[in-house]
Amino acid sequence: MLYAEPIARLIGEFSRLPGIGPKTAQRLALHVVRMPREQAQSLAEALVAVKDRIIHCSICGNITENDPCRICTDPGRDPAILCVVEEPKDLVAMEKTREFRGHYHVLGGAISPMEGIGPDDLRLKELLPRLASGEVKEVVLATGPDVEGEATALYAARLIKPLGIRVTRIAHGLPVGGDLDYVDEVTLARALEGRREI
């Protein structure tokens, strides 16, 4: 063992986080050793507070401290349009655009047979009762542009279309500032499909 047990344990815990490899985990753990006790205590309290106080909204599935969440209770939102996203981070990305003023439905993932995630593992069964009221006129499928996101969007569209609700998909294409010669063929094809008149 190269490190004392508490440091080795902290490195092990950090390395279990997504995107944190062994070297980054080691750097983080050694940073914690150097930080003042008050900062370490504050970090520990923030971690515990997240586990103690954060819940999922019973309506949309977003992470929140209050149920229902602030988006679901906002009277300024358009109840006729519902955006379906995979994860809470996707909802945050949509909100950062300041363009979408409807409601959300967070699925909690995407269909991925390789990872053993099927439609029943997602919040699709909670989506249909939200649409049954007749208030929602359009569902925007904002799942990822990867294979799992596409499969999820297609599955959701098949569930929603028989209800007579308009189903749309967010456009995929070229990033702003991107060069055509660096873009893969699938992305370029999607950009061509999603073209519009200017």
Summary, kept brief:
The protein is α/β, with parallel strands linked by helices and 198 residues long.
List its salient traits.
alpha/beta; Helicase, Ruva Protein, domain 3; 7 helices; 40% helix; 6 strands; two-stranded antiparallel sheet; Dna Topoisomerase Vi A Subunit, Chain: A, domain 2; 198 residues; 4-stranded parallel sheet
Classification by helices and strands:
alpha/beta
CATH fold-type name of the largest domain:
Dna Topoisomerase Vi A Subunit, Chain: A, domain 2
3D shape: globular
Count of individual domains: 2
User: From the coordinates shown, what is the CATH architecture of the largest domain?
Assistant: 3-Layer(aba) Sandwich
Strand line-up of the largest beta sheet:
4-3-5-6
Mean pLDDT: 92
Task: Describe the protein in words.
The protein has helices at residues 5-15, 22-34, 37-53, 88-96, 127-132, 147-160, 185-193, and strands spanning 55-56, 63-64, 78-85, 102-106, 138-141, 166-169. It is of the alpha/beta class and 198 residues long. The strands form 2 sheets. It has a 4-stranded parallel sheet with strand order 4-3-5-6.
